[in-house]
Amino acid sequence: MDTTKTTGPLAAPNPAQGALCEREISDSLAAPNPAQGWLLNEIRQALSLRKPQADSLEILAKVAGEVWCGALGDRALPDLAAQLEAVQKVCPTVKGFDHDFCSLCFALATGVGKTRLMGAFIAYLHEAHGIRNFMVIAPNLTIYEKLKADFTPGTPKYVFSGISAFAGNPPIIITGETYQSGKGV
Known about the structure:
Number of strands: 4
Strand content: 5-15%
Shape: globular
Helix content: 25-40%
Distance between the termini: 47 Å
């Protein structure tokens, strides 16, 4: 087993909050349960995730396991304080959230594949927790157009390529242009 350690890729959305997860993580970071470990491996392999992406996906799985699965089954913890406490079980250095909802930021270097990681997160949260709706916000028109292409089935960089759950039933992508049409309703 490789025990190479890296600094966790999770960072606070607001630098004033401090790093969310500056602890060391290893290749042996355990998934919340064996079934989710299988799912993580499937996503990791299907999307050919690099180590920083795989580490981020495992952190998300652990946080989601605490926030959504705790004592409540598949429902989120009822209040922000309980969600913060659950996140702190995985990343003890978390001080708080920037908003009135559980929010995390994964800081990865340029070119590592944040769009692919976004696809991995969506696939994991959909399959493991039944979450069906996601909002992706782009900082500018260039990235918006790139994201639309990357989330469109059949395109060269399709982010869900190889994800069996989406092979026959790909997600419906609602864009700024198609929102008013009621697409996906």
